[in-house]
Write a structure and sequence with these properties.
The complex is a heterodimer of chains A (about 120) and B (about 400).
Chain A: H1 6-13, E1 26-32, E2 37-46, E3 49-58, H2 61-73, H3 79-93, H4 103-106, H5 108-118
Antiparallel strand pairs in A: 1-2, 2-3
Helix pairs in contact in A: 1-2, 3-5
Chain B: H1 4-9, E1 17-18, E2 21-22, E3 24-25, H2 36-49, H3 59-79, E4 86-89, H4 92-107, E5 113-117, H5 126-135, E6 138-142, H6 152-159, E7 164-170, H7 182-192, E8 197-201, E9 220-224, E10 235-239, H8 241-246, E11 257-260, E12 265-267, H9 281-297, H10 299-322, E13 326-329, E14 340-345, H11 350-358, E15 362-363, E16 365-367, H12 372-377, E17 383-387, H13 394-404, H14 407-410
Parallel strand pairs in B: 3-15, 5-6, 5-7, 7-8, 8-9
Antiparallel strand pairs in B: 1-2, 4-10, 9-10, 11-12, 13-14, 14-17, 16-17
Classes of the chains: A alpha+beta (about 120), B alpha/beta (about 400).
EC number (chain B): 2.8.1.7
GO biological process, one term (chain B): cysteine metabolic process
Enzyme class (chain B): transferase
């Protein structure tokens, strides 16, 4: 069960930054069509950087833990930082190992976040 | 007698270890495993006979052509059809698209309705939805009840005006196993318009039970070769000869023509008219070998074996449901369902459940099973699905049940 490390279980059971922002600058939705997972992401921006992120949605342990961990990780990141983070950053963040069949779950929130800057 | 242990010896992949465990393959609904005889038929073809069909007068081409003709005859006999009515495609999706492009685009016009059911796989749903959008037709979807059976009230309502011109339905739900009463439904839809053309998606029927197309009240039957022990890249469309003759080709190119002139071209005879380009020759030969294998087992024995497995699995799953460990979807009665068992482990996302089961060597599908309108009708985003076939055993079901109990513990 190498994918279900303690840190993933912890973020899955106690997701960080779950909910809504009162003063969000940008909101966006992202979904995984094949599994029905959905996420809504809201961010507050300052000087081209992400100051705060809140999210909510339905998803598996991997997508939930990834969204939760990402919501802490991306504070202070600008467009270049976020793009640089990439799939490699997601895998590392989740403990260095993600089953290839679960990459869509792992990157759900990340793909949503990338839209912030693409929509600008 | 059906001897599952003997059957298992014919499938080399079942010797594989997955994460250190014996493989328990419960995803035949997506694609089946292949017996040695199918692999050998394809290997023999490439080693000894490989040449294009209908091309040469030389020996190899003649032999290749004969092997494809023989495979077509085997499949025709298997489903009780005439050989010229059996069209080879890449898969059931392509078969259904062929009907949509060749029949649908010509015959569905503004004011016509196309009827499908909420049980459909996307491949028998989306083409008709797109067609209706393009032709300003009315796209109608028969609802399901809480056990995933067709809602007859909704059916009556959607067919009463007699505008349904095409009825596309599945013979067995790939996601939750429902077996609709084809004869009754077709009779009802035809009572309002006797000219309704009926398209049957038999992808989850032909591999699992005896299907005689000439005895069914339908005009087209689509199925995949790779779900019935044959190789990927093979599918079949059966159509009634008088309709096929009136239809225009789906794809243009080699092997499907009559005479090609500078101004215009005529089409070949059935089935070549619908088979443009070099087909998957090795695949078709492999599919022929798969049919031989199924004929040897006997389709009634296959159905009986799967029904017993389903009954056994259902009883065990109901115990888990009573313990609030799982939620089971679809009809409860094994008589009313094919070999698909859909469930969720309470409190665990289906992707997580499937991955944890995989760590024990169990291959089950998780997601929407290409049937999003159906799966979401149960109020869940996705489901886990176990599907059974000729090589599955009661012991494997016991093992599945034992390991389902382990799933929630990962998150405890």
């Amino acid at each position: 069960m190498s994918d279900y490390k303690d840190i993933i279980i912890d973020h899955y059971k106690n997701p960080r930054n779950f909910g809504e922002l009162d003063n969000a600058d940008i909101s966006m939705d992202e979904a995984n069509a094949s599994c029905g997972d959905m996420i809504q992401i809201q961010v507050k921006m300052g000087n081209g950087m992400i100051e705060e992120m809140r999210w909510r949605g339905v998803g598996c342990a991997i997508s939930t833990a990834a969204a939760s961990m990402l919501s802490e990780k991306i504070v202070g990141m600008n467009k270049a930082d976020l793009e640089k983070f990439g799939e490699a950053g997601i895998i590392e963040m989740l403990g260095g190992e993600v089953n290839a069949g679960r990459m869509k779950c792992a990157t759900l929130a990340y793909r949503g976040l990338l839209k912030i800057f693409n929509n600008e | 007698m059906f001897d599952v242990e003997k059957v298992r010896k014919d499938f080399p992949i079942l010797k594989r270890k997955i994460h250190g465990h014996d493989l328990v393959y419960l995803d035949s609904g997506a694609t089946s495993q292949k017996p040695e005889s199918v692999l050998k038929a394809m290997d023999d073809y490439y080693r000894n006979t490989n040449a294009n069909i209908h091309r040469g007068v030389y020996e190899l081409s003649v032999e290749s052509t004969r092997l494809v003709d023989e495979a077509r005859k085997k499949i025709a006999d298997f489903i009780g059809a005439r050989t010229e009515e059996v069209i080879f495609t890449r898969n059931a999706s392509e078969s259904l698209n062929l009907v949509m492009y060749s029949w649908g685009k010509k015959n569905i016009t503004k004011g016509d309705a196309v009827l499908v059911t909420r049980l459909e796989h996307h491949s028998n749903f989306v083409p008709w939805q797109v067609l209706c959008k393009e032709k300003y037709g009315s796209f109608r979807v028969v609802d399901v009840d809480s056990e995933g059976r067709l809602d007859m009230e909704s059916f009556e309502r959607l067919t009463a005006d007699g505008k349904v011109k095409l009825f596309a339905l599945t013979g067995a739900s790939n996601a939750i196993g429902t077996l609709p009463d084809i004869k009754k439904l077709v009779e009802k839809v035809k009572s309002n318009n006797k000219d309704v053309v009926v398209v049957l998606d038999a992808s989850q029927m032909v591999p699992h039970m005896k299907v005689i197309v000439s005895k069914l009240p339908v005009d087209f039957v689509a199925f995949s070769g790779h779900k019935m022990l044959g190789p990927t890249g093979t599918g079949v469309l059966w159509g009634k000869k008088d309709i096929l003759l009136k239809m225009e080709p789906f794809l243009y190119g080699g092997d499907m023509i009559g005479e090609v002139g500078m101004i215009s071209t005529t089409w070949g005879d059935l089935p070549n008219k619908f088979e443009a380009g070099t087909p998957d020759i090795a695949g078709i030969i492999g599919l022929g070998a798969a049919v031989d294998y199924l004929e040897e087992l006997g389709m009634d024995n296959v159905r009986q074996h799967e029904k017993e497995l389903m009954k056994y699995a259902m009883e065990k799953m109901m115990t888990l449901q009573d313990e609030d460990l799982v939620t089971v979807y679809g009809p409860r009665d094994a008589e009313e369902r094919g070999g698909a068992l859909a469930f969720n482990v309470v409190g665990v996302h289906p992707h997580d459940a499937a991955q944890i089961l995989d760590s024990f060597g169990i291959a089950v599908r998780s997601g929407q099973h290409c049937a999003a309108p159906l799966v979401t009708s149960f109020g869940v985003p996705a489901m886990v699905r176990a599907t059974f076939y000729v090589y599955n055993t009661r012991e494997e079901i016991d093992y599945l049940i034992e390991k389902i109990r382990e799933v929630p513990k990962v998150f405890a």
